[in-house]
């Protein structure tokens, strides 16, 4: 799809489908106006949802037509939303809009979203220029971390003897005691390991943001805003941590992606 | 609007599971369209996204205990005890080091592949859009 085709399509849809209440315009995010559609990225709402660019001044919105006859939020919808934004973020600054944003048509995108907030969006995009978000996820390897905790908490060996070969019903108290000790130990390790990861990536990052753990064996869950030119440095830093934690923590790096964790609205339009 | 960390630290907030990476990133994140668009907003039904609060419960404790129990059995039985386990205890796993490092790079690529929807290397290198003038 070329840019001109995308524009034409939207002009057609303005003329032809503006009054169709069953079709809306899904909005993904704000980008600079000089983006160009080159791929066949498909959008929210199925493979037929072709992604288009709606421009105003120096900024633009990534949108696609959406049929309104079904609820949004399938795994495919969520993946399409993030996939599109992240693909864009690898190339240009992107202000992500929260999942599920639908307006009546492309003209509303210009008149109510882009035009009134042009300068504010443009300034934020300039700040993001050359930067992207990366997410660092570490997950403890259960056997390894339990072995480590056993070594560090000698009282666990004794409790373990109590529950060995015993049914859960008669050893419930000892089991809960074990569980509490392990849970506290994992929390302490998570805090220490998160701090270690934070210390390591901070020198290569513009900003960092802690994320809540999303799994009880999470070791690290961290978002960083990094100059895309420094992605290699970020990977090198993480390689070192991964080596140090080998067999103990499975470390993953996601990105580049849109700056979901670093965009803060300043009461925009709330007044 | 400013570009800065949207959250200051570890807060107690519901987090999600399943499709974990995508949901972790986009759920409750990004600019809220309602703050900008009023007149032409289209309300649309959103499927409930299964979110789970990560707090330790009795179930968690019992699961940990059972894991400790199993760990114990595999050690004392000596049956199928991988050499890996001993190495882990000492924190020196040379072989795994390489895998872990590769894992970092692979998973980034996996994600791109999965989300862009392509399975070919080429598609990873062809983002959906790029600056004008490039082609």
UniProtKB/TrEMBL annotation, chain A:
Belongs to the gas vesicle GvpF/GvpL family. This is GvpL/GvpF family gas vesicle protein. One of its GO terms (cellular component) is gas vesicle. InterPro entries: GvpL/GvpF. It is found in: Gas vesicle. Residues 1-23 are annotated as: Disordered. Keywords: Gas vesicle. The keyword Cell membrane does not apply. GO terms for biological process: gas vesicle organization. The keyword Ion transport does not apply. Residues 1-21 have a biased composition (Basic and acidic residues).
UniProtKB/TrEMBL annotation, chain B:
The gene is gvpA. Keywords: Gas vesicle. Gas vesicles are hollow, gas filled proteinaceous nanostructures found in some microorganisms. During planktonic growth they allow positioning of the organism at a favorable depth for light or nutrient acquisition. GvpA forms the protein shell. GO terms for molecular function: structural molecule activity. It is found in: Gas vesicle shell. Belongs to the gas vesicle GvpA family. The gas vesicle shell is 2 nm thick and consists of a single layer of this protein. It forms helical ribs nearly perpendicular to the long axis of the vesicle. This is Gas vesicle protein A. Residues 115-135 are annotated as: Disordered. One of its GO terms (cellular component) is vesicle membrane. The lineage of its organism: Bacteria, Bacillati, Actinomycetota, Actinomycetes, Streptosporangiales. Pfam families: Gas_vesicle. Transmembrane segments: none annotated.
